[in-house]
Design a protein that fits this description.
Layout: E1 3-8, E2 11-14, E3 17-21, E4 32-38, E5 45-52, E6 61-65, E7 71-82, E8 85-94, E9 101-109, E10 113-124, E11 130-141
Antiparallel strand pairs: 1-2, 1-11, 3-4, 4-5, 5-7, 6-9, 7-8, 8-10, 9-10, 10-11
């Protein structure tokens, strides 16, 4: 079953609407892992994970702290609405920027998709706030 679950600043969230991973790899080497989903059908809140590896992803743990060379990035975003229209987005990003971190463990990498766990410290885009992500789990089929 496709899912993304985690705690954000101690509050439990599920991003189980439209959960998927990147397109199915054309070769045996998986050069990137992209996972995303929304909290509800309204697609106002979402969570995503991006990992790019020239040598290919493996079933192991990856950690990016601040400005590391590892291309691992997480994002949590909220669409700000007015009169039924998106007027702006509040975003938290982490893994590849100063003061942030992202840890991703790939437990299963199969022809179906990818499963694993994650945690992170994401920073508010354009601000000083942070979102601490704990107890993250995902299971995402390829598109």
């Amino acid at each position: 079953m496709a899912k993304i679950r985690c705690k954000i600043n101690g509050q439990y969230y599920e991003f189980n609407y439209m959960v998927n991973a990147n397109d199915k790899p054309a070769t045996d080497i998986v050069h990137f892992v992209v996972i995303g989903g929304y909290e509800k059908q309204d697609m106002i809140k979402g969570f995503g994970i991006d990992l790019q590896l020239p040598d290919g992803a493996k079933e192991t743990t990856y950690t990016a702290i601040g400005n590391t060379a590892l291309a691992l990035h997480g994002k949590y975003y909220i669409q700000n609405m007015k009169d039924g229209k998106i007027v702006s987005t509040t975003g938290y990003n982490g893994g590849t920027s100063e003061g942030t971190s992202f840890t991703l463990t790939i437990n299963r990498l199969t022809k179906w998709g990818v499963k694993g766990t994650f945690s992170s410290k994401l920073k508010l885009v354009g601000g000083d706030g942070y979102a601490d992500i704990t107890e993250g789990k995902f299971s995402a089929p390829y598109n």
